[in-house]
């Protein structure tokens, strides 16, 4: 194409040069030698042997599978990536059989591969919905075929004009007694199902939420399972308009779709009838028995979000800390860094501002992992209790899980992006691995309950609990932390933090009491406004959000300290316990520092104590410095998962960047094909103008 | 393949209306509520000339196929960058055809809103040559570059070095025998990296390299050299050049790398306006005054600050308009009525949404005024320097560093907050904010990394404090630092005198608080460093806080002062009133976010904190009816927004469906992967089932 006279199809390669010493791997070795604790022991304590062994077994399998190759994704367009995703999903089914992967193995594979795929929602939403909502006949017809992948489905709830407010959905399902059918219909453009993962190009069935209408009466949204594409040739069935909603900020490998119905008839069996039922012919509506049961599932999915957030943020922290240890910037003239007696530029991990940014994130990761674990324990405990007819735990657990989902995903998204930014210029390259991570994590802020809306559920519960504590009706329970801190607060509402030195802050009791006090104080202020000053719910939404946040912060801090307290000496030896305890203090003080105003407004701390908190935070950061790299090593994230030039275990980041760059499609020819068409004429236009001008 | 071909027709939505009221009806109601005249406010912000130019240029771009933006969200990097080269060529033709001056061209670039491979040629290569060429070099390099005969880039940063220029590894060794320089990359980490327009476009480069003469090192100097053949565009021998790969945004620029293998360039390549190397002898002649170059940096940073205002204007336009159109839940206590019917409440009526969005509008106005002020000071300073007066420079340069850092951070946070406030649809590229965020991000890193340059500000603040204490500071009306430091020193134990929430609407009260907080922070760090032996590195977190505090003072003051003079500049009473409220919201919201700073210096009491929080809520309520009009006044055309959600007419949902119809996956009924992957997976499942039933 270009010019001729030379072979243009020559990929660009770097010369065989080393980086300027010391190499990244030299730095990381030196960092690892400084650790005061055993990395494997902490990994085991946090994740357990079973999980770590599974990861070790699975990683080499994925690394050797072309369909699971991860570097291409940085160069591909959405269209190419989605095509690749289909291939991977097909191969996944084969591998699962070959290696006899169970559900936990498969979950780990998905985490490691770290990219949603067109079939994801079939597994994550369609199958669980059928599992919970089918009656016996429907189990055989829908559920069992779905788990064998004979039918592929999606979960169609949100609409173009409606997301969080399920009651406002517009799609209708009208019962037709004459034929014993339902007629699904989209009355407006805004009724189009929208954002439905796996729908656009993949699913042949859908679980559809539609307003049930019988004999002209509206019974609100109910679930239906309907076929939407031909099982012969995959084309959409007549009466169904279906397609893709277009490119997104992230999550591009899934075909989020839209779906509209034009008087589309489905048989009576389509109405998922485990709970509510409609009698064939008469159309008599039989109410569901107990709706509370579904709350349990929501708790589990939120617990998984908290856990998953821990892993995602661990990834951010791993990349940022390792690269900070390798990346050198400026010679620090006060305290010059030496390497074999020569002054080198100081690694950025030695600058306090950088430490302040990223070490608190490392601590946050540990906090999230412990809270995720605790939530899953409580979920199982609650399931058992509910089976025995005891619903005592449910309200607190459900409300707390809402607030935690909101706070945790908010913290994670901010900290994850900060980790990327802490990598400086190279953080902006997709090869950092953190750009996609951020874009793909973002939906968590909106789905499974929008983060701002969710806090209202938590606040509503907190207000209710406060009223029952005051009226003496609340029943204490070791698992109900809300009642614990409210009761403590009510005993002495004018208490002040009993701390006069920075060192005194390093006491779980003191810190936890402060978080409890602040949460309780916020609740009383809100109660005052609503119950006594007649403020409307809408007018206090900002405070409602604060109250939920305070409560959730208390829970996370509590879980962190409790996890360490409850660990036996064999589970956690002294050096490991010590470093995790420091992490817990840093996390708590960091959270306090971020919301210092609230602690101050409540009069629980003085401005002098606020200063102590700031100073003590910096103290802890200095203590953590030698363990920083080992603390992220303990997250045990394989390079395959990180897919990052900057965060590699060996630290050879610049060599790795160069490898990635050699694969860039633009570097596969010497001269770009646009040269002849656009660049050359551009330059010639300049030359021509010059000639014309010189003629004048 | 053949089996699906008969379904190769695009998917179309049925011809249905949205459920009423339509977005357009809702947004008209909002506009009717405005307490001021939108056009007057636009004119006050931009001036008539700018708005007239914009009105003239938009239709031209809209009718040019090359400037069509509808494909942008669907394209991969490869397609995008190809379109960018195409567009650059057409841009040149249009500029000539319509006689666009540089203002017109800037407006056209801003409207098109996607950087291009040639961008760096204009904003870095040409200006560097302007600043650093001697007479001979102007003819040789600058003039052809202005005619686009040579296309250049600016190669400074390296794989292993960004902000620390002194640490660059590339060497330029003077060879007296041939009167040449030999440029060389000794290590892999010496590769020039991130260089915009280098990857595949430029045929020349400005190269920063360590000058070495007779074995003596003189540090980084500037060279201009040809890097690709002007015949066939191949890299010259001795050079390895390529693209550094995909980025989070900015993918229409070919950021590149370059390595030198003993690459020889002639003596004339060293840009010699300041430092010089004598031919033959290799004698090094030092530059006279390096201060002059600070002026240029101030200008670039002032432009960045102006841009931050516009970035927030754009994102708040999308978010506020969509919040007015998007309805969610019936509010039981205060149900929203439409005629006689109860409708779901527009999300803009929820206080939490107001708390998130209205401060972004306020930030946009604040930063626009700050950008203007910086440009004014820049010109003032240029005049002063011509008279040999360097009095303004230090303060201006220091403030510009901190402001660049603070305001670009505010912009990035604001854009993302706006995107998220759009709920689920904010995550669609059709919101127009995702792409924008990705492209805007580098502003935090370029022209001085935000995480580094605040130190320049802090260093200056500490120095000024010492001068004030020693009584050697010379007051100047343009030096606000001296003003607030002097005020603080008169009474370092002062308390905020406000006794009621409304007193916090007094600009004097607010400004004094910001000044006190900045001064108290500076005094404390100075004490620690000067008297308690705290190291610079140890104090970085606090040094960051004082830079931030200083710059916030500057912005708050600029906003209030701009309004004081506004009526002289023809701003009507109604427009001034709404801006005054916006200014108060800006200042108090800023205070609310950093309240602990104000308490730690004992200037505010916990009771006053509560008042500030209440006052913020009050102000949100007052601004609410003007929200849509306030973003309309930013006068950003739909062509620039390229957003389904932020359209002027409010018809967000219709626009979303139109854009979805263009998605490539929707051009066939059945995706190609069906035959290759989806069908085999089902057949596999069915086969397994048969096998099972045989058992």
UniProtKB/TrEMBL annotation, chain A:
Annotated GO CC locations: peroxisome
Stretches assigned to the Acyl-CoA oxidase C-terminal domain: 507-683
Residues of the active site: 448
Pathway participation: Lipid metabolism; peroxisomal fatty acid beta-oxidation
Cofactor: FAD
Keyword tags: FAD, Fatty acid metabolism, Flavoprotein, Lipid metabolism, Oxidoreductase, Peroxisome
GO BP terms: fatty acid beta-oxidation using acyl-CoA oxidase; lipid homeostasis
Chief localisation class: other
Localization in the cell: Peroxisome
GO MF term (any one): FAD binding
Domain Acyl-coenzyme A oxidase N-terminal: 48-152
Protein name: Acyl-coenzyme A oxidase
InterPro entries to which the protein is assigned, alphabetical: ACOX_C_alpha1 (IPR055060), Acyl-CoA_ox_N (IPR029320), Acyl-CoA_Oxase/DH_mid-dom (IPR006091), Acyl-CoA_Oxase/DH_mid-dom_sf (IPR046373), Acyl-CoA_oxidase (IPR012258), Acyl-CoA_oxidase_C (IPR002655), AcylCo_DH-like_C (IPR036250), AcylCoA_DH/ox_N_sf (IPR037069)
Acyl-CoA oxidase C-alpha1 domain location: 295-463
Similarity annotation: Belongs to the acyl-CoA oxidase family.
Stored SUPFAM superfamilies: Acyl-CoA dehydrogenase C-terminal domain-like (SSF47203), Acyl-CoA dehydrogenase NM domain-like (SSF56645)
Annotated residues for binding of FAD: 158, 197
Reactions mediated catalytically: a 2,3-saturated acyl-CoA + O2 = a (2E)-enoyl-CoA + H2O2
Entry keyword annotation includes Flavoprotein: yes
Automatic annotation (TrEMBL), chain B:
Keywords: FAD, Fatty acid metabolism, Flavoprotein, Lipid metabolism, Oxidoreductase, Peroxisome
Record's subcellular location: Peroxisome
One Gene Ontology molecular-function label: acyl-CoA oxidase activity
Record has Cell inner membrane as a keyword: no
Superkingdom assignment: Eukaryota
Database matches in SUPFAM superfamilies: Acyl-CoA dehydrogenase C-terminal domain-like (SSF47203), Acyl-CoA dehydrogenase NM domain-like (SSF56645)
Residues reported in the UniProt entry to bind FAD: 157, 196
Listed GO CC annotations: peroxisome
One Gene Ontology term from the biological process aspect of the record: fatty acid beta-oxidation using acyl-CoA oxidase
Residues forming the catalytic site: 447
One Pfam family linked to the record: ACOX_C_alpha1
Cofactor(s) required, per the database record: FAD
Region ranges (Disordered): 1-20
Domain named Acyl-coenzyme A oxidase N-terminal: residues: 37-151
Residue span, Acyl-CoA oxidase C-terminal domain: 506-682
Domain Acyl-CoA oxidase C-alpha1: 294-462
Family the UniProt entry places it in: Belongs to the acyl-CoA oxidase family.
Protein's name according to its UniProt entry: Acyl-coenzyme A oxidase
Organism: Phascolomyces articulosus
